Amino acid sequence: MKILLCTNAFENITNGPAKFANLVLQINDRYPQHQIRILTEDVSESRLTSLKYVYKVTLNYPGFLRLFGQFLRMFIYYNKAKQIQKEYDYDVLVYINSFNGLWASLVSDKPTIGMINDDNNLRTNFKNFTNQRWAKKIIFKYLEKLSAKHHKGIISNSDYLTQQILKAYSLPSTRVTRLYKSIDLDNTTFQPHREFKQPIRVLFIKADYIRGGLTVLAAALQSLQPLTFELTIIGPSQGFGNHISSIFKDTTNTTVHFLGEQPQATVFTLLTTQDIFCVPSLQEALGVANIEALAYGIPVVSTKAGGIPEVLDNGNNGWMAVPGNPLDLASALQACIQNTEQRLQKSINGRRYIERFSAPYMFKEFLRILEECK
């Protein structure tokens, strides 16, 4: 089977879809009977020369049409895919963002598969108007719904998200398949023993830090005095530095180290040196960062939001608080800090549990899904 995967995120690895796009290239070596190639806008010319299976698409349109760039992208990607088809006659066309594959789902002579990786569009409705971005989100929701109805199949990344898609888009259960996004477990170092000296080192990784519950974490840490903390924040761009500082202006027992966007190597190093991984998300479709944390053995304190319980095995692999509740989060953090034996057991449970999120397992499931849709 020949696969062409279209993704707007590839080189800049800041989220689960980008990690997935890089990992699936291993299919070419692991399964010689299959081929997969990537079409992306997010790859530099310097790196492109060393990538055998990656094509670059350039988004060329006049500046005055920039407002419609998200819509134009679907036509530009499909036109490039048709050019590639002349030399690489793929069997199935996969879009890592279902919405971007809308045009292809309507006109392609090859079966198309769309991936929905979060519930950002799903949760938008006429009752939750918040700001001027709401209109854009509501349009995206209905276009994503249209794409979901026309693709041969939809891939979600958790049982929670699968149910949300089926309900919001009124799809039959056979149209949506869950595929857990994985990590490369072979290249992780499991270190469940952490020092927990004062100050306690807490790691937060989330680009959308509001959705990730950073304000809730600030309040929870403040309530845990006389304990002291060092909080390292990774993910948000440097432009949000002032706002993040304002969140912690009243948190007197916490020293904040805001590092902004960082490469994967830095993230993995910190997962081996910090004491607690805590992203108390308000909403989360799955939470690949929690999987990475479990792989490295760092104790995980999170919430019961979305697909997080699927990763933490309903609390067997970590501690879960009520989303948006600082006191409940503080209680979970305190339980993690005080129970040395429980920390070790939950870390061991987690490392064993996430074998289901291993790359080889994901590859087999991904290929099976595409074969069935094809």
UniProtKB/TrEMBL annotation:
Residues 189-351 form the Glycosyl transferase family domain. Residues 34-186 form the Glycosyltransferase subfamily 4-like N-terminal domain. CDD domains: GT4_PimA-like. Keywords: Glycosyltransferase, Transferase. It holds the Pfam family Glycos_transf_1. It comes from the Bacteria. GO terms for molecular function: glycosyltransferase activity. Its EC number is 2.4.-.-. This is Glycosyltransferase family 4 protein. It comes from Rhodocytophaga aerolata.
